[in-house]
Design brief:
Blueprint lengths: L1 H10 L4 E4 L5 E3 L18 H4 L5 E2 L5 E2 L6 E4 L2 E4 L3 E2 L19 E3 L1 E10 L4 E7 L6 E7 L5 E2 L11 E4 L5 E9 L10 E13 L2 E13 L6 E8 L5 E5 L4 E10 L3 E9 L11 H6 L1 E5 L25 E11 L1 E9 L10 E8 L27 E4 L5 E3 L2 E9 L9 E11 L4 E5 L4 E5 L2 E2 L4 E18 L5 E4 L3 E10 L16 E7 L1 E9 L9 E2 L16
Parallel strand pairs: 3-31, 8-28, 9-14
Antiparallel strand pairs: 1-2, 4-36, 5-30, 6-29, 7-28, 9-10, 10-11, 11-12, 11-13, 14-15, 15-16, 16-17, 18-19, 19-20, 20-21, 22-23, 22-37, 23-24, 25-27, 26-27, 27-28, 29-36, 30-35, 32-33, 32-34, 32-35, 32-36
């Protein structure tokens, strides 16, 4: 009888909770409670197993990184990697307060943040120095490549905006330009993690905790609240789809080593109290590295592995941001500890449509370390808070990297560098000479302009709108010999206004080309109304309302 009852309970659907912008329905108990992490491959997100019957596409460009939008296709998916800028590093330590020794000097984003501020049309970066007391510094740029370190009044004669006191030093930090904030004094938010040496019962221990600072300009910061204790690489991001702040708490277990715990709060000032009784109940294990993350046996790893790092591949950090219609995650994967250089972290990429469950279909390094001793990224690569910026037809990804010194664990000179990728270019659906098709699941939209990000230099792309029975109700003219991150279809008869607000499938027919994204918008300028991560020139808010 008990077995029968258990089977019956398992067959019942979870209680329905919040419905998201894309019609994904969250379970009533949120976030999902995970009591332990394993090294088993990452589970398929529930929204890919049971997608919504009809998917609204009002928010953002629709990226084809997974099968959420796809009902049937004969196209082949290709995952793409960014390219490092030839002039890297773009930000180097060259000031006395950044450190000048060969073994220790830094102008390094350790998450921190790189943003484009529409208020004064400048790229802005916050970064850490090397020598204690460690400082958080600030630099600006007009193009995201050439950076200026302005002389400020916080620590006169320097570009320091926040300096450690004698009692503690900063570790990881996240800076967030919050364009949805109503209070101009809180426009910028900083979440540094501090470390302090303490003696408890005769033993030296390290206390680690987070603080929250506010600033109107990103330069002058005011302490708002002291948070609870946390791991030293804890980071923060805003999930604007759900209007909540998410804290990726650095955790660890003997099974997976370093990993992430999840804690969220809509109320930021009360959100840093995950150590309270209520906070502990709301926390859960989240994600770690797994067996699909390749080990680097070529790295001359310690053998046997030290007792404190028995797991050779671990999740060192996770930075996230909303890009168009989904969350993009920068997964910093640690490949094990070599004998002859410091931690070889590399940045990989993942995607989430509910802000909790992840797809990581491509486990290759997205921003890798170099295998050439002496290169700026020979040792260690870390992602930046905000994840990416949109600059014309490209995405800009900034990374902090350690050059290292062979034969030691020294970080060497630490700098900030740039990698670029085609806009929306994480993945494409491709066809050759024989051609192929992609048919979406039923979609709902209110706009009448259909745009695509497509490369068909030697081919063409067509689209059709299908009704619930699969009957063609509208056809486009072909897009030929194009390579554009934003091109609009023209229709043979009318446009999409006749089918707006009705469930419609779109069928794309492609030859000799690549389709990266599509979107339907009411705006003739192609504005997607999706989120723009850390922003970029031409955008005036957190979403694309300009079509730039």
């Amino acid at each position: 009888m008990k077995l029968l009852l258990s089977a019956l309970l398992l067959s019942l659907p979870a209680l329905a909770g919040e419905t998201l912008y894309n019609s994904i329905v969250l379970p009533d108990a949120w976030p999902p409670k995970i009591t332990a992490l394993t090294r088993e491959p990452l589970a398929v997100p529930p929204y890919l197993i049971t997608p919504p019957a009809v998917i609204p596409i009002e928010v953002g460009r629709q990226l084809l990184v997974d099968d959420f939008l796809i009902e049937q296709t004969s196209l082949k998916r290709t995952h793409h990697l960014p390219v490092y800028h030839k002039g890297n590093p773009v930000l180097r330590p060259d000031k006395a307060w950044e450190g000048r020794s060969v073994a220790k000097a830094a102008a390094l984003v350790f998450s921190d943040g790189v943003w484009f501020d529409p208020a004064d049309q400048l790229f802005k970066v916050w970064y850490m120095t090397a020598t204690r007391p460690i400082s958080t510094c600030y630099a600006t740029s007009k193009d995201g490549i050439h950076w200026d370190k302005p002389v400020l009044d916080v620590v006169p004669g320097t570009n320091i905006v926040l300096k450690d006191g004698p009692e503690a030093y900063r570790n990881s930090s996240t800076v967030w330009l919050d364009l949805e904030e109503k209070d101009p004094q809180r426009r910028f938010k900083m979440f540094p993690v501090y470390v302090r040496e303490e003696t408890v019962n005769g033993k030296l221990t390290l206390r680690k905790w987070m603080k929250l600072y506010f600033s109107p300009d990103g330069i002058h910061w005011t302490l708002a609240v002291e948070g609870d204790e946390c791991g030293d690489r804890t980071t923060v991001f805003r999930n604007p789809f759900r209007k909540t702040w998410v804290f990726g708490l650095r955790g660890g277990t003997p099974v997976v080593g370093r990993c992430r715990e999840y804690y969220e709060s809509a109320d930021l000032l009360h959100g840093l109290h995950w150590g309270s009784r209520q906070g502990k109940q709301a926390r859960t294990f989240w994600i770690g590295a797994d067996t699909l993350d390749p080990e680097r046996h070529d790295l001359n790893l310690f053998d046997p592995i030290p007792s404190y790092d028995q797991v050779p591949v671990q999740l060192y950090n996770l930075d996230c941001a909303a890009y168009e219609s989904l969350m993009v995650g920068m997964f910093t994967i640690w490949r094990g500890q070599p004998r002859d250089r410091a931690k070889p972290n590399e940045v990989c990429v993942g995607y989430s449509r509910d802000g909790f469950h992840w797809s990581r279909p491509d486990r290759r390094p997205f921003c890798p370390v170099s295998e050439k001793e002496g290169d700026w990224n020979w040792c260690n690569v870390q992602s930046a808070g905000g994840c990416c910026l949109i600059v014309g037809d490209q995405l800009y990804f900034y990374v902090g990297a350690h050059q290292g010194i062979k034969g030691t664990k020294a970080d060497g000179r630490c700098s900030t560098s740039l990698a670029t990728l085609r806009r929306d270019g994480f993945a494409s659906m491709d066809a050759g000479e024989a051609g192929g098709t992609l048919t979406t699941r039923p979609l709902r939209f209110s706009g009448n302009h259909l745009f695509v990000n497509v490369a068909t230099p030697q081919g063409e792309l067509r689209a059709e709108a299908l009704d619930a029975e699969g009957k063609v109700i509208a056809k486009t003219n072909p897009i030929t010999h194009a390579d554009s991150t934003k091109v609009e279809f023209t229709w043979k008869d009318g446009d999409l206004s006749a089918v707006a607000e009705r469930p419609v499938r779109l069928r794309f027919s492609l030859t000799n080309g690549s389709l990266y994204a599509f979107w339907v918008t009411p705006d003739a300028n192609g504005a997607s109304h999706g989120y723009v991560a850390a922003g970029g020139p031409g955008f005036i808010g957190p979403t694309d309302t300009t079509g730039k």
